[in-house]
Design a protein that fits this description.
- The complex is a heterodimer.
- By secondary structure, chain A is mostly beta strands.
- Chain A is 7% helix and 54% strand.
- The mean pLDDT of chain A is 87.
- By secondary structure, chain B is α+β, with helices and mostly antiparallel strands.
- Chain B is built from 41 helices and 29 strands.
- In chain B, helix 6 runs parallel beside helix 7 and helix 28 runs antiparallel to helix 32.
- Chain B is globular.
- The chains are: A mainly beta, B alpha+beta.
Amino acid sequence: MRLARPVGIAVLAGAVVAGFALDSVAVRPTTARLVTIPSPIQPLISTRESLSTTWYCPGVPASGASGETGSFTLANLTDSPVDASVTVVPVGGASVRKVVALGQRGRIELVAADIAPGAVAAAMIEVAGGSIAVEQTSVTPAGSSVAACTTEPSDLWLFADGSTRSDASLNILLFNPYPAEAIVDLAFADEDGPRISKKFEGRVVPPRSLARIDVGLVIQRKASVSVKASVRQGSIIAGRLQSFTGGDSGRRGLTSGLGSPAGASAWRFVAGQRPVAAPTDVPSAERIAIFNPGDNEAQIAITVLLESDATAATSGTPPGAVPTPLTLTVPANSSAIADVASIAPAGQFNVSVTADELIVAERVLDYTLKGVVFTTVQLGSRLAAETWYFPIGVPTGATGRIDVLNSTGVPTTFSVKTVGAAGPVAVAGFESVKLPAGAVVSVPITGLSVGQSLVVEGAGALIVERMVNSPAGWSATLGLPMIG
Amino acid sequence: MRCLVLDTAGDADLAARVEHLIPGSFVRPGRSESFAAACNDALKFVTGSGFLAFVHDDISLAPDAIRLLLEEAYRSNVGVAAPKLVDWDQPNLLSDVGFLVDKFGDSMLPFEPGELDQEQHDAVADRFFVSSACLLIRSDLFRALGGFDEEMIGPNDDLDLCWRAHLSGARVLIVPAAVGKHRSGRDRTAVDTDHRAERNRIRAVLGNYSGAHLVRIIPQLAVVTVVSAIANVVAGRPRRALALLSALLWNGSRIGSLARKRASTRALRQVGDSDVRRLQQRGSARASAFIRGRSRKALSEKLASSSRSVLADLRRTSNWANLAVWGLLFAFLGVGARDVLTGRAPVIGRLLPSLPATRALLSSYWSGWRTHGMGQTTASPSGVGVAAVVSGVFLGKEGLARTVLMIGPLLFGWLGMWRLCRPFNDARARFISVVVYALIPLAAQGFEAARWGGALVYGALPWIVSWLVRASGLVPFNGSRSWPAVPQYSFVARIALVVAAVASFSPVILAIDVSVTIALFVAITVTGGRRSALRVLTTGLGAAAGAVLLHLPWTLSAHGLLHSNRALHLASSLRWIDALRLSSSSAGWRLGGLLVVGAAALTLLIADGWRLAWALRAAALAIASSAMAWAGSRGHVPLVNGELEALLVPGAVGVALLAGLGACAFTSDIRERTLSWRQPVLVGATLALGVGLAPGLTPVTNGRWGMPTRDAGAALRSLRFEDDPSTYRSLWVGEAEAVPGRGWPLVDGFAFSLTYGISPLIDDAWESQPGRAEDSVAQALRAVSDGLSNRLGRLLGPAGIRYVILPRTLPNGDVAVIPDGLETVLHNQLDLREIVSGSDTIRIFENLSFVPVRAQLSTAATQASTADGMADLVRSDLSGSTAALLDVSLNAQSFSGSLEAGKLFVSLNPDPRWSLVQKGATAVSKPAFGWASSYDAVGGPARLSYRTDANRRLFVLAQLMLCGGAVWLARNRRQPKSVGVDGLQIDDVARSGLYDVDEAPVLDLTRVFPGEVPTEAPDDVVWVSDRDGDQE
């Protein structure tokens, strides 16, 4: 018994110490995620096999008036026919549901005014099983615009560029496709700084309805207006309908499309070009609109990346050299405009925008044609993918090009295909286009089969833009990346 | 004078022995049911005698005793006369001079315990009754009275006989000139005869008072009985308390027999109750005996003890000390739970759910159909049966039953700890152990987290440990007169019963029983006692196996019992330091826990002998418990389900034992020693213990013993869901502890559960194996969480899910985590509408595509129901279906109403035992949506009902029989290998000398049973009651 005490106490103390030792090395458990859906970034096509897919289009003109038209183009990406349920929701009117059949790899264009007329109409397209892609087209006397629709609603939408000058009209479209009402707060920033209007706080968007907000009623006569739509309850799809009517400035153009569902610290724009001479198809002005929706000041760097030796030769800049970035500071909840021309050499380039805060960057391109300035606005890309899809392809009566950027550091190839009932078919001459590292290749799409979708397939990560030039004006759009 | 020996044991040698010692005697077989029955046989065997003298076989009368009794009987014209009895071993001590009785039949001795016989009681005196150990009665009176009441088996048959003698006008006298020696081995209020004594006493009271008097007596008797039961609980004699209460029930169940007894008593009544009352004592004999600390049990113990005067003193003081300690504990319990006692225990989290009507519970248990989830045929949890019994015991008073079930275990645990420390034979140690155990706030920690399992285990474990250590047979748990020996199988049965009862609601007790057993096995093996350790091991593991057996067939179907819900643990992994200080979370009782554990551990330094050995074992138990909790919080222990407090209860028992052993060590190992380092250590430990335990008083502050103030049911009712809750379900998704009832894991840390209507039912408190329907719900949730669809409403519609609910608050009021992004996902569903969004406690989405649980389907839905799988479901418009068969039976297993011709859809896991009967014909079930059922409705009245299998009924009956068998085994004490004598320890008989053999061989009946050699150790004392002799 004499030994029992020390031995017993030693054993027990050893157990306690062992517990501490185990505790210190034991791995703290981590909690797995239930929801695996990534936060919305930009419109894309998911290649995962899903039970059902719903596309949301923010809104197109649907009055049916002369010179105004809006349509939704649906493309079946699969080799099986699918039925799509299309619900068109006009502003202030009752929604109308229509079921349309899409043949294998088929495409259909639905005119909004034919289904549910209204000043503006949004659409919700639902398919079970199969996979589709949807774009919308807007045409008004001010111009035309082609834009991608999205599968992802969001509780935040950001628009960097906008104007409420006398020759401009800026409308924000708030589309609530869900059975519960959404409550949205709108905040603005113009060249004078942040602007908040009580009128646009707590806006209720009823279930399954579309609301149109005329920003000019509050923010008047401002050349640069950024908009932030925060959803307090529910989720929505928000779009912008910006038109320049060619007043005193003679500026024209229409921008109709989605905002950005989130801020980001890096944005990429594919096609930049400073005219060496004075051709008609290069922009006369290229600006980057920056919106910092956060509560912290943002430091922005805009870098022009030279694309080829030719550019270097014409600009006198050594190949591979990178011009000094343009830096600027954007206060919290404020916006800024940067002129790319001030740093860009003559020739082709692409633009990268980086920031130390989450911002939104849009490119504003002005094209001058016969004395008329056409403006188009395009959101930067945050994604690179091997395959990019353009459901509309080449609009009827339009010309244009596709700009393909190799966003990687290694050379790659890509092909351009049209999609018909037989499936994707490579366009002659574009079966395997070489694309050096960091370079951009422009592919003219004029003359390609009208009424067919276009696909750009690369061997590496690409970013692809489409520029459409129709009699009604210019429209620059990102394609829909296909992501697994 | 002739002697008749009635042989009630069938002893072949008896006649020869009687003939040898008492020539000319008669030996006849007697009935062995009871002493009363055997004595009544005298009426058959004996005729023509004027008097009968009944004498026990442990009586040795003086040679002139019978003569003196007869002389006094003639002289005083008495009906019943008895001699003065003195102690067998010390004839100068009084043993029996008749009894005084109060109006409740409670008897008391007319002398002080241990009083010397100095002829101070040698006057002939009237007594209310005299002991049947030796009494003389007129033969005609005995015949007129009908002999002893044969319903009375055991003590107090003499009380009844004498009471009736008084009623017939006869006198009952004590004749002290006649003397006999009595072994007094069995006191009439000894623990093992409590039940019979109390039954017989109350039967005598109810049978012998007149009707008018009885009206006044019965309420008083009830009050005195209940108060007495409470007092006995307080005094640490729960079995005696149980005896009192069960005596009431026993008599209540024999109304017919009582009526017959009263009729025969009425026939012989010559004297009114007022005259009889004059022979009785005023007040309550029981109360005064308790207060004066001289109950006859105490007397018995004192007489048996060599140091009885010291013990008597201790007894007196401990009664008051017991009363004080238990008074404080009761106050602690009552004040701490005042709001619950005066109001209602909340229904939230893992606390006991609302209890439906007893009939509904019984019906559910009997049927075998579980409503949990989407319903399924499987063994109902035994807990439903237990809940039915409890509900019945409380006469359907649901609030009271829940309160008692939730608060009662605390008291039960304290009593268990009191019992566990009894062999220490140190009142201080018992107080300290119980107080330490009471102030370790494990139960409160569980209640704060809205978990009940910890409290249940807290109540049960001291008893389990107590039986395990007794099974070890180690000092000081190796038996005593106050703690009679029990065979090992009885310990196994007791532990199995307690484990099974607790496991009905908290299966973790099985893991705890096994771990405690193994910890004790290892500790006892290491500290010496391999055989004892083996006994502990076999007892504990046998009990666990027995508990599993008692839950058959539930255990066969309860897959959930066999693996822990890992989801629950990941969010709350316990740090080792928290486990050591017996805290289930890192909050609260920080310093207090460390001080208490540290102070208790100091016992290891100061104790010696068996106290040190048990201190080491108790410390091992505490560390093993901490290790279990640590591992359990990480999902490595089965059956835990988040009830970390339960895993820490063995630690609390160990620490309380350590503290008690420290007190023992003070008395035995320190007090007598010279001043050394041990005394300062003890002082320090005492101070630390006091300071550390102070925070344990905090449960008193909120008046709910830490339970949340929020009632989930009330909160949901406030949302005013008006529709019939039997027509839809709700899907709860969130932290596993935040969803009501037992759910199914989704991903680590999160689970989903289903409830009928909006509130959980009692059946939801137990897990069930997910069927295809539950799997389909999980798949739907995962699909939308992966972004594969935004039609969750359609996917959930056939499951009858009308509401999707995300709890944002844990039962304890803390914020519950909602799975990242899930709210957004639900907002983005095209057929879900958020209807409660601003609440801090809950998010509720309404499913616009839900189909009622019993529905007549729309045309589109009918078409859709033929499809199978989510891909078909998302494209199906299920709207337009209407609820049907709205008349619901109590147990929700029969639905009736009028149907229109078409399709009846039933959202239950399919089962052929469900049938739809319309116009006398049974419709054939068809599959719907791949997992549900549908029937072709012809129109008109219809009834959908569930038919219980005969197998299920057999299983229930078998389970009841198993439980009955376990109870029987648990009650068993060790039986003698050789038959002893009434009231005698066999070894004592063997050792004892015979009294006055030469002078009175005829009357010395103990000579009849010589030479019974003890075959058991002294702790294997056996008491027998069915072997008596009588003489003519």
